[in-house]
Design goal:
This protein is an alpha+beta fold. Helix content is about 35%, strand content about 10%. The chain has a two-stranded antiparallel sheet with strand order 1-2. The protein has a two-stranded antiparallel sheet with strand order 3-4. Strands 5-6 form a two-stranded antiparallel sheet. A hairpin with an 8-residue loop joins β5 (about 190) and β6.
Length: about 375
């Protein structure tokens, strides 16, 4: 019995050790598998960051920037400049006139683009340049002429009246029906309307184009024979310089001998202002002419209106002769009774210097000395 006891004890101890080993093997496996052993290494570090970042960032940025912006933006700018070039070409179209001869009354008010724009050609009632009218006509022939539209349109035959003269005003063709023309002092037989002009001008021996064409002449009339001779007195006759030279030449040719037996009185001549060329193409006495300061005044209106369309608000008083200002005021009363002068603003006028008759015998400010004796 004593000898078998150690074996029994050893066997029991082995069983106890084996039981503890089995229990310890079960507990650690459950804890390690659930919390720390397999989750952290596989999910966080190896699988997420390396695979996601390299695949997205490098592929997206280069493709978007290089393929879209540079090429399309430069193309858009070039197209816009081309459009500007087209606009500048349009500004050189033939719709602007230089003189009245460039204008005409046109049948075709516009150039048709499609058959829907076609209209029957009636009377020429639209003022425009001849070049623009020709272009509109050519477009109508192309789009609307013949079988394209006109042959089946049953257009009536118009009965037209003569249209008034056309003129070119600031590059635009306009009719003359509202034009305000100057009152001419020359004979009706000497009044001629040039092509492209609305108003007639004087074309006789006393006609002019500028002030230098006019003068105050001593020889009042032409002389063709001794019976036409007269005494040349003061240079008080308004004539063109060309006509004055002709009169002087004729008098010298035919009247020298006549003068020897027909002595003329010695004239005392008063100074006067130089003649001017009016807007009707006729030499006339300077409307601002004066002999002394008593002949001068200031006038609210610079020019005399010839039609209601020329009525304007009064401005700062301008120096002029009494007779000229009276004529202007009469014209204002005649043509501007319906003009709303009460709505006119007060002009910002400075106080003028003294008014008088200047050394050139015209009314004005400044040099108030009388003319040379």
């Amino acid at each position: 019995m004593r000898q078998s006891a150690p074996y029994l004890i050893a066997a029991l101890a082995a069983l106890a050790v084996a039981g503890c080993s089995a229990e310890s093997a079960t507990t650690p496996d459950t804890q390690n598998d659930t919390t720390t052993g397999e989750v952290t290494p596989d999910t966080t570090a190896p699988d997420a960051e390396p695979d996601t970042v390299p695949d997205v960032a490098p592929d997206t940025t280069p493709d978007t920037t290089s393929d879209v912006e540079p090429a399309d933006t430069s193309d858009t700018t070039a197209d816009t400049s081309d459009a500007d070039d087209d606009t500048s070409d349009t500004s050189s179209n033939p719709s602007t006139c230089g003189t009245g001869e460039d204008c005409t009354w046109c049948v075709f008010a516009a150039a048709p683009q499609t058959v829907a724009d076609c209209t029957c050609p009636f009377c020429p009632t639209t003022p425009m340049t001849r070049a623009q009218c020709d272009a509109n006509h050519a477009a109508w022939d192309t789009v609307c002429g013949g079988p394209a539209w006109h042959d089946t349109a049953n257009c009536p035959v118009p009965r037209c009246i003569a249209m008034p003269q056309l003129t070119c005003n600031a590059g635009t063709c306009e009719g003359c029906d509202t034009a305000a023309c100057a009152v001419l002092t020359c004979k009706l037989s000497e009044q001629v309307t040039a092509p492209g002009e609305c108003c007639p001008k004087c074309t006789g021996t006393n006609s002019c184009t500028e002030d230098a064409d006019c003068g105050m002449c001593t020889y009042r009339a032409p002389v063709n024979e001794p019976g036409d001779c007269y005494c040349p007195l003061c240079p008080s006759h308004v004539l063109s310089t060309a006509q004055c030279e002709l009169n002087s030449t004729g008098w010298t040719t035919h009247c020298t001998a006549w003068y020897d037996v027909n002595p003329c009185p010695v004239a005392i001549c008063l100074p006067t202002a130089a003649a001017t060329c009016n807007d009707g193409g006729q030499c006339e006495r300077n409307p601002n002419a004066c002999f002394d300061g008593g002949d001068c005044t200031t006038c609210r209106f610079a020019t005399a209106p010839r039609a209601p369309s020329q009525c304007t608000c009064p401005g700062c008083p301008m120096p002029t002769s009494l007779t000229h200002c009276e004529a202007i005021e009469e014209a204002v009363s005649e043509h501007c009774p319906d003009f709303d002068f009460e709505s006119c603003p007060l002009p910002p006028c400075a106080r003028p210097p003294a008014l008088g008759c200047r050394s050139d015998y015209t009314c004005g400010y400044g040099d108030l000395l009388p003319g040379p004796e």
